């Protein structure tokens, strides 16, 4: 059973974020242009905008996969710009989950082994790993697939395994980059309902980068990016249902 946690604290603080990428021998492309944003614990929100608007770049910086050119980004009370590569990797390993459109499952591993992998990196005991993995697979309706390999699963099942892998360590923050891009409409809605259930039950913060209307219909906060700037930031009533 999922236990609801009521506390709500700031989980991401962004002030004056600028991100530039070098172009050619002397020029730069500015992908993010002075972003200010605060995200609270337990939010189910999305960075929405057309290709080139800066949403994936922004998500990568929140996920400590990249650093700001200017400004400050605090994630889980850590200044992303000052983290070493080792410190950033440790923060991702301990406190974050990632869900991508390409699943990124290890093909020679079973479902159990794919979901277990993050716990191996955290040096959890065999008993704790089994308990966590089986509990997480039960949440996602995958207990019957525990010994299957990715090639034996449907696309929707593969994405549910990817969600289980992201959630098995009970992260405070999950980042999802176009997680439904390779799924049909029915599987997309099933996956989104699953993520919303986990968000509401565990108060895990989900941040999406998307332009998929199906995803947008489930969001409770929408941050519209246009040309590297926040054009709109609004709380909405999700039309998606559990």
What would you say this structure looks like, in words?
The protein is of the alpha/beta class and about 240 residues long. It has a single domain, classed as 3-Layer(aba) Sandwich (Rossmann fold). The protein is built from seven helices and ten strands. The strands form two sheets. A six-stranded mixed β-sheet has the order 6-7-8-3-9-10. It has a four-stranded antiparallel β-sheet with strand order 2-1-4-5, covered by helices on one side. Strand 4 and strand 5 form a beta hairpin. Helix 3 packs across helix 4, helix 4 crosses helix 5 and helix 5 runs parallel beside helix 6.
Please tag this protein with its features.
242 residues, Rossmann fold, six-stranded mixed β-sheet, four-stranded antiparallel β-sheet, 7 helices
């Amino acid at each position: 059973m999922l236990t609801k946690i009521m506390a709500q604290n700031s989980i991401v603080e962004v002030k004056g974020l600028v991100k530039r990428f070098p172009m050619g021998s002397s020029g730069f492309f500015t992908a993010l242009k002075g972003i200010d944003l605060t995200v609270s614990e337990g939010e189910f929100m999305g960075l929405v905008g057309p290709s080139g608007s800066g949403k994936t770049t922004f998500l990568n910086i929140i996920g400590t996969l990249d650093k700001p050119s200017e400004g400050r980004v605090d994630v889980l009370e850590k200044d992303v710009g000052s983290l070493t590569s080792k410190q950033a990797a440790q923060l991702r390993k301990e406190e974050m989950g990632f869900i991508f459109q390409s699943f990124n499952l290890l093909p020679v591993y079973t479902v159990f082994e794919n979901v277990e992998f993050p716990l191996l990196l955290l040096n959890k005991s065999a008993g704790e790993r089994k308990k966590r993995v089986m509990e997480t697979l039960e949440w996602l309706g995958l207990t019957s697939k525990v010994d299957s390999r990715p090639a034996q699963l449907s696309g929707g099942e593969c994405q549910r395994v990817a969600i289980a892998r992201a959630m098995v360590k009970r992260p405070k923050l999950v980042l999802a980059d176009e997680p439904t891009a390779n799924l049909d409409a029915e599987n997309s809605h099933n996956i989104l309902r699953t993520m919303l259930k986990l968000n509401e039950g565990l108060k895990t913060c989900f941040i999406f980068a998307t332009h998929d209307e199906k995803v947008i219909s489930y969001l409770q906060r929408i941050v519209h990016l246009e040309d590297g700037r926040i054009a709109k930031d609004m709380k909405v009533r999700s039309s998606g249902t559990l």
